[in-house]
Design a protein that fits this description.
Number of strands: 2
CATH architecture: Up-down Bundle
Structural class: mainly alpha
Order of helices and strands: HHHHHHHEEHHH
CATH superfamily: Glycerol uptake facilitator protein
Shape: globular
Length: about 240
């Protein structure tokens, strides 16, 4: 599997399951309606695990432009052409994932009257709208995420790599679960520009009834914040050696 295909499929799976749990909890007349934040956080963690599992043998399972760029800053991935392949695959995979969520829950989108609820199954929004603190929240959450990812990816026991084999995605999934439970309540913890921007674009172009606007005034925050947080984590990791 090529890196492009691996990143595309892995990110698609990530968004199908992550966006899917948001749709299941939020949309009208689903069996999961109103099952709450714990279900969403756990669902996203399992989405990360599944996406990492699918893509692990082809690309190293970035599934996130903030990861790719932070790894590029530390030399873990090299070459502009390869980096662009990763980024393009991530955004395309996220768009395809959002399309599949809409197809899966099409009847429930039609039954749901509230536009912001529908948008929330595609993209994030702040609980309290304050651009400065919203940006800070996404930056901090991604900084913690990427700091964890750096040390998970380089973990050793003695002189041996601390590989879990097929379960290598589990520590990252648990890290995402912890971030969702602890740091996700203010912005919805995008921590991934592709996870937010590509589905937001799909929300804008899909024929969803009574969908409202796509909140483009907020859309830059879950792009810039994760990129800043990832870059800061890369600087820290490099400085500490």
């Amino acid at each position: 599997m090529t890196p492009f295909v691996a990143e595309l499929l892995g990110t698609m799976v990530l968004i199908v399951l992550g966006g899917g749990v948001c749709a299941n909890v939020s949309l009208e007349k689903t069996y999961g309606k109103d099952s709450g934040w714990i279900v969403i956080a756990f669902g996203w963690a399992m989405a990360v695990f599944a996406g990492v599992f699918v893509s692990s043998h082809g690309s190293g399972s970035h599934l996130n432009p903030a990861v790719t760029i932070a790894f590029a800053l530390t030399g873990k991935i090299k070459g502009a052409a390869l980096i662009m392949q990763y980024l393009a695959a991530q955004f395309l995979g996220a768009a395809l994932g959002a399309l599949l969520v809409w197809l899966q829950y099409k009847d429930h989108y039609a039954e749901t009257m509230d536009g912001p609820t529908k948008l929330g199954t595609f993209a994030t929004a702040p609980a309290i709208r304050n651009p400065l603190t919203n940006l800070m929240g996404e930056t901090i959450a991604t900084f913690i995420f990427m700091t964890g990812c750096f040390y998970i990816s380089s973990a050793t026991v003695g002189t041996q790599s601390a590989s879990l084999g097929a379960l290598n995605g589990l520590p990252v999934a648990l890290l995402v679960l912890a971030i969702g439970l602890s740091l996700g309540g203010n912005t919805g913890y995008a921590i991934n520009p592709a996870r937010d921007l590509a589905p937001r674009i799909m929300h804008a172009i899909l024929p969803i009834p009574r969908k409202g606007d796509s909140d483009w005034g907020y859309a830059w925050i879950p792009v810039v914040g994760p990129l800043l947080g990832g870059a800061l984590a890369a600087l820290l990791y490099t400085a500490l050696g």
